[in-house]
Amino acid sequence: MKLAVVAANGKSGRLIVKEAVARGLDVTAVVRGENKTEALHTLKKDIMDLTKEDLAGFDVVIDAFGIWDPNKMDQHSATLGHLSDILSGSKT
After folding, report:
1. Quick one: which of 22, 25, 24 has its CA closest to 3?
2. Could you give the domains of the chain?
3. Whole-number Å distance between alpha carbons of 69 and 54
4. Among residues 74, 89, 83, 75, which one has the least CA distance to residue 4?
């Protein structure tokens, strides 16, 4: 199974990647900077710059984005909306 973990360098993302790798899944870490996870594959791109083509071929995309600044909570809706838009109509 091919798995993409978006925001993989975060607290939740790193744990998700670690567990998925331990289970033998083919994991790609989607990160903005240097990959700090155990994933062997990396896609270096900001979440809002991801395209349908970037995520084509993955069986599952996990959104591990998180932000706890009260002034930036709207980013949760924006990023989830973006991912939903680009994955709409796909089998992912």
Report:
1. 25
2. 9-87 (3.40.50.720)
3. 28
4. 83
d(CA 73, CA 9): 19
| Separation CA 60–CA 3 (nearest Å) | 5
Q: Rounded to two decimals, what is the model's pTM?
A: 0.94
Whether the Cβ atoms of residue 13 and residue 79 lie closer than 8 Å to each other: no
How many whole angstroms separate alpha carbon 86 and alpha carbon 88?
6
**Tens digit of pLDDT per residue, the chain (92 long)?**
999 999 999 999 999 999 999 999 999 999 999 999 999 999 999 999 999 999 999 999 999 999 889 998 999 999 999 999 999 999 88
Q: What is the spatial distance between Cα 92 and Cα 90, in angstroms, rounded to a whole number?
A: 5
